[in-house]
């Protein structure tokens, strides 16, 4: 097939989101950076040196590699990622922070659950596009899919990182439906998810605490509801146009995770409703272009791959913004392209590189 030009609109939107992320990390993190590392721009430097540089390299590689080659090695990459998830629990390799084992140190530290969002989408696109009619059956279609989700649930849930598993599971389900799975499978997965909620609340105290904080934010304002209350204060303080860049008060250690999952609240405080609306519009355009790429992709593999890549980024953005705005319980997941985290930025830019690769072959 004759190659087209890559989707420059998508590339421009991602560039704006990344630039906005650097701007907000510099502003939101200046106080925490100074008090923790005695450097006002530690977080910004780290995001630039590790996140952006590695992200651009991997993104370029994904942009240039043939899709057939990626399809061929999809299982291999996924199995490597599974092995890395297991290493999280190996003493001396896994790193425990705040009671959670989500990092590994293999000369450099990173979160294996982050690249899983990419490797799982790649593997599922290859697997689902090959199954075709077999997806409608239980033994050859639905059961293997359930076992795969179960394995990932055990590995990620043991860390624990329920928010990330939620993103991974929802993305996988969307890909399954798009591949042509019957409605009864989707309904069955929904029923299993509802049954799992009481179990999650019982096993993970922090999940129960976040749900309690969501329904009763005023009851525990200095404990489990503290983060969401401070986030709402920040957003409310911004009003329509915000207090101005670098003028946030909540960044003075009032708001937990000001450069992490709470960075949306600082955006709302400094740029107001207009700033938040602009952020939503940018992500909306990203989703629109991503879906258009998927719709016009050459072949089922490329179509499912593009859909999966745009889905995990879109789901993560929606859930993060909704949670920090008080519309859903907190999840702890970062905002793609914006929140601090080199592992997350590398995976997001790698995904964008592959989306642009697919767009070269799509008539958009």
Automatic annotation (TrEMBL):
Transmembrane region(s) = 7-28, 48-67, 74-94, 141-158, 164-197, 231-250, 262-288, 300-325, 337-358
User: What GO CC annotations are associated with the protein?
Assistant: cell division site; plasma membrane
Which GO biological-process labels does this protein carry?
A: cell division; peptidoglycan biosynthetic process; regulation of cell shape
Any Pfam family matching the protein: FTSW_RODA_SPOVE
Q: Which InterPro entries match?
A: FtsW/RodA
> What is this enzyme's EC?
2.4.99.28
Q: Which GO terms describe its molecular function?
A: lipid-linked peptidoglycan transporter activity; peptidoglycan glycosyltransferase activity
Keywords associated with the record: Cell shape, Glycosyltransferase, Membrane, Peptidoglycan synthesis, Transferase, Transmembrane, Transmembrane helix
- Keyword Metal-binding assigned to the entry: answer is no
Localisation: Membrane
**Has the keyword Membrane been applied to this entry?**
yes
Its membrane topology is listed as: Multi-pass membrane protein
Q: Which reaction does it catalyse?
A: [GlcNAc-(1->4)-Mur2Ac(oyl-L-Ala-gamma-D-Glu-L-Lys-D-Ala-D-Ala)](n)-di-trans,octa-cis-undecaprenyl diphosphate + beta-D-GlcNAc-(1->4)-Mur2Ac(oyl-L-Ala-gamma-D-Glu-L-Lys-D-Ala-D-Ala)-di-trans,octa-cis-undecaprenyl diphosphate = [GlcNAc-(1->4)-Mur2Ac(oyl-L-Ala-gamma-D-Glu-L-Lys-D-Ala-D-Ala)](n+1)-di-trans,octa-cis-undecaprenyl diphosphate + di-trans,octa-cis-undecaprenyl diphosphate + H(+)
Family, similarity comment: Belongs to the SEDS family. FtsW subfamily.
Q: What is this protein called?
A: Probable peptidoglycan glycosyltransferase FtsW
Q: Native species of this protein? A: Candidatus Portnoybacteria bacterium CG10_big_fil_rev_8_21_14_0_10_44_7
């Amino acid at each position: 097939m004759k190659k087209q030009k890559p989707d420059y609109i998508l590339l421009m939107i991602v560039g704006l989101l990344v630039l906005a992320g650097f701007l907000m990390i510099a502003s939101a993190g200046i106080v925490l950076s100074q008090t923790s590392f005695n450097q006002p721009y530690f977080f910004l430097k780290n995001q630039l040196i590790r996140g952006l540089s590695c992200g651009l390299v991997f993104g370029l590689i994904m942009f240039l590699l043939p899709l057939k080659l990626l399809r061929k090695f999809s299982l291999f990459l996924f199995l490597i990622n599974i092995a890395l998830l297991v290493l999280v629990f190996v003493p001396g390799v896994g790193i425990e922070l705040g009671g959670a084992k989500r990092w590994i140190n293999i000369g450099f530290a990173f979160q294996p659950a982050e690249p899983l969002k990419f490797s799982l989408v790649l593997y599922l696109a290859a697997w689902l596009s090959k199954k075709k009619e077999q997806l409608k059956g239980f033994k050859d279609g639905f059961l293997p899919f359930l076992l795969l989700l179960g394995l990932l649930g055990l590995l990620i849930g043991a860390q624990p990182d329920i928010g990330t598993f939620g993103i991974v599971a929802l993305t996988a389900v969307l890909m399954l439906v798009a591949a042509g799975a019957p409605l009864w499978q989707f309904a069955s997965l929904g029923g299993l998810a509802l049954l799992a909620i009481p179990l999650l609340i019982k096993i993970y105290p922090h999940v129960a605490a976040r749900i309690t904080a969501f329904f009763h934010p005023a009851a525990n304002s200095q404990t489990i509801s503290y983060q969401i209350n401070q986030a709402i204060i920040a957003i409310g303080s911004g009003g329509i146009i915000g207090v101005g860049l670098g003028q946030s008060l909540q960044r003075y250690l009032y708001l937990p995770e000001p450069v992490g999952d709470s960075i949306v609240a600082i955006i709302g405080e400094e740029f107001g409703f207009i700033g938040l609306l602009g952020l939503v519009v940018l992500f909306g355009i990203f989703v629109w272009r991503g879906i258009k790429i998927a719709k016009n992709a050459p072949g089922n593999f490329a179509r499912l791959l593009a859909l999966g890549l745009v889905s995990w980024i879109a789901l993560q953005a929606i859930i993060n913004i909704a949670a920090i705005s008080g519309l859903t319980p907190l999840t702890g997941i970062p905002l793609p392209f914006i929140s601090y985290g080199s592992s997350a930025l590398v995976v997001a830019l790698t995904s964008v590189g592959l989306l642009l690769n697919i767009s070269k072959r799509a008539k958009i």
